[in-house]
Specification:
The longest helix is centred in the first third of the chain and has 14 residues, at 23-36. The strands form 3 sheets. A 4-stranded mixed β-sheet has the order 6-9-8-7, covered by helices on one side. A 3-stranded antiparallel β-sheet has the order 1-3-2. It has helices at 2-5, 12-19, 23-36, 54-67, 79-90, 134-144; strands spanning 10-11, 39-44, 47-52, 96-98, 101-103, 127-131, 152-159, 162-170, 176-185. It is 29% helix and 24% strand. By secondary structure, it is of the alpha+beta class.
């Protein structure tokens, strides 16, 4: 939307109107985008105008194109099983399907990309789907319950400078997925012992990060 608006940008109220996102939730997301440098903001009278920072966006896209998965699609062990998993999670069939390849091009959910440096091994920690309401989270949980494997519920958990309700699932290759609804921002990364991110122990397969109470001492959420 901001990319389409170009240098003129859009006022926060207009973004709320076009997206249907409540102003309270929208302000949180715009603040986070501004913090990452993906958008710029400036005061224009009584309005705050947001514009896309094309320099930062192009740099990020360049990095992802060059470095993500070594320039290759994310590898899976069983294409058919993985297509079933992701088609259920996204409630959409792949846009492209080949004998050795599948791709989803989604408008909803949108991508939320985050990096951290908290002393845990570098690499992919987990992937996630962010929803905008408790109703959407309930709908996503219903999808996850159709999948084989455990779904872990975390309500009101603190991690990654945010308080959220979450459901966790693990894909067929062992990658943890969180589906979450952000309730508020918080001033700290997570719990008192937080070190990495917040994949709970039953979901943790290939990642090492912060876990709920039953997990290792260096976990967090």
């Amino acid at each position: 939307m901001l990319v389409q608006a170009g240098p003129a940008g859009l006022a926060a109220g207009k973004i709320s109107e076009l997206t249907g996102i409540a102003p309270s939730s929208l302000s949180f997301h715009l603040k986070e985008l501004a913090h990452t440098g993906m958008v710029d903001s400036q005061q224009a009278g009584r309005f705050v105008i947001y514009t896309a920072n094309f320099t930062t966006m192009n740099a990020l896209l360049g990095f992802l194109t060059e470095n993500c998965c070594g320039g290759n699609p994310c590898a899976v062990d069983d294409l058919a099983v993985s297509i079933k998993f992701y088609s259920t999670m996204f409630a959409a069939a792949p846009t492209v399907v080949k004998s050795d390849y599948a791709k989803w091009m989604l408008d909803d959910p949108r991508v939320n990309f985050a990096i951290s440096a908290r002393g845990v091994p570098a690499g992919l920690n987990h992937l996630g789907v962010q929803v905008e309401s408790a109703e959407e989270l309930t709908e996503m949980n219903a999808r996850l319950q159709q999948l084989e494997g455990e779904v872990v519920e975390e309500m009101g958990t603190a991690c990654c400078y945010a308080k959220s309700d979450k459901y966790w699932a693990t894909d067929p290759t062992g990658i943890a997925w969180e589906t979450y609804h952000t309730l508020d921002s918080i001033p700290v990364f997570g719990g008192p012992s937080a070190s990495g991110c917040c994949v709970p122990e039953p979901t943790l397969v290939k990642a090492s990060c912060c876990m709920p109470a039953q997990a290792a001492a260096d976990g967090c959420c």
